Amino acid sequence: MATFFGEVVVAPSRAGVDDEEWAEEAREDTPEDREIRRELERKRYRPRGAPPPLSSLLWEIDVLWTLKSGASTESSADEPFVCSKFIVAVGHNAAAFLSSFILDSVCWEVVGVVKLWNEWCRTSNTTTVLPTDSFCLFYRLISDPTVLLCQCSCYVAEDQQFQWLEKVFGCMQKEGLQVTILSTCPVADYKTQESTLTLPSPFLKALKTKEYKEQVCCPLLEQPNIVRDLPAA
Amino acid sequence: LLQPAVSVGNVGQLAIDLVISTLDMTKVGYFYTDCLVPMVGNNPYATAEENSVELSINAEVYSLPSKKLVVLQIRSPFIKNKYKPFCQTLLSWVKSSKCARVILLSSSHAYQRDDEQLLGTPLRYLLTPDLEKAVGGLMQELSWKEMEKVAAYPGINDTEKVLHIPGGGITKLLFTESCSKGIQMAVLLKFCSEGDNIPDAFALVNYLNEWLQLIKSEVNTSSQWKIPSSWRLLFGNGLPPALF
């Protein structure tokens, strides 16, 4: 593509197609590449207690649940949680909403944390966090232990979203489960016939599955608006 | 199976939107995949209040039994390093579901054309050897142009030619994999640039129609395709009156 100044540049594509990245993918794997990949895979599923190599930290997500006894444990071998309601808040605003209006130390207890790392943020496995930290914590309602809440203020990268989804929901019993996802988007991203300047903001919109039979408290999201990333996953 | 490649200008995907919307196809399933960026929205082909609340996600399958047509629509970009796994999974699904042939709608960067390609039609096709035997003759009758190969080492050695589809996303990978797996695949692509790609989508879908005859081709074919409601506001919202 030629710019107005006459220089020829590679045009970025809205479709997310990046030729350089593509050329990398197209290179044939040499036997050395395959060996390196095998080693990385072995290290990803390391024995408990061994320090993780940097390569696996870059991608892997760990969900750690605090059981009644107070000991932390990996989630995979445990029985699925019996859960009737699961509320997930994604992003700083939604997490802050829960902190301000819902959560308190009397009615809710921390039951788990997600540990992840990406170029934008890192979470830890400590459950005492400051509001300015990036964190992803799970809470349970003491009076009804089947009500779970997740506050996720950290950014979950594109290639981690599916893993987050599988690991978190993999711990829960899915029959009779009602999931509510809270998230925020900039008003400027909202597509509407009028200009967004005249819209009374903030405003609520919802998306629901066919199976959700209850009343929704706000209008449904109109086409052509969409939701992406972790809330969508 | 008719599907798009996520490629320059999203032309393949727009063309697929036109096919699904015009033929009023029914959604029959979706791909649960970690290879595409997640997204969700309400039914993009909604025509009335009643059918506008069905959720829609990033990779869904539609069908029209009367034409033995199955369409896959892809609505988000690929996640880094996931091109190959997606192609492999897709092709094994094609084989296991005994799909007769696959048609891939795609596009390629217009600025990469050579002098000869700048003249004449911007539309091209490709056929895997297995499909060449079946429909090669038809392509000749339609006077379609096959996608040219380019020199592997331009300037150094012009004899070795390779297929090069810049901006085509998974097009080349799917095509070469299909050739080696004996799958009957056709690629229909248009040279284009980023911008308002709606006319490109119409051109591509009319090109497809010359072959498949999905709708009756009249003189003014662009008016025969139904634009889905989700194409509204492609280029932003209304303007604030205070601007003037």
From TrEMBL, chain A:
Lineage top rank: taxon: Eukaryota
GO molecular function: proteasome binding
Region (Disordered): 15-41
Biased composition (Basic and acidic residues): 24-41
This protein's GO CC annotations: endoplasmic reticulum
Matching Pfam families: PAC1
A GO biological process held by the record: proteasome core complex assembly
Key words of the record: Chaperone
InterPro entries assigned: Proteasome_assmbl_chp_1 (IPR016565)
Family of the protein in this entry: Belongs to the PSMG1 family.
Identification of the protein by name: Proteasome assembly chaperone 1
Native species: Sagittarius serpentarius
Automatic annotation (TrEMBL), chain B:
Keywords: Chaperone, Nucleus, Phosphoprotein
UniProt keyword annotation of Nucleotide-binding present: no
Keyword Thylakoid attributed: no
Listed InterPro entries: Proteasome_assmbl_chaperone_2, Proteasome_assmbl_chp_2_euk, PSMG2_sf
GO cellular component, one term: nucleus
Pfam families registered for this protein in UniProt: PAC2
Location in the cell: Nucleus
Positions in coiled-coil regions: none
SUPFAM superfamilies found in the cross-reference section: Cgl1923-like
GO terms (BP aspect): proteasome assembly
Assembly mode: Forms a heterodimer with PSMG1. The PSMG1-PSMG2 heterodimer interacts directly with the PSMA5 and PSMA7 proteasome alpha subunits.
Function: Chaperone protein which promotes assembly of the 20S proteasome as part of a heterodimer with PSMG1. The PSMG1-PSMG2 heterodimer binds to the PSMA5 and PSMA7 proteasome subunits, promotes assembly of the proteasome alpha subunits into the heteroheptameric alpha ring and prevents alpha ring dimerization.
Family, as annotated: Belongs to the PSMG2 family.
Protein name: Proteasome assembly chaperone 2
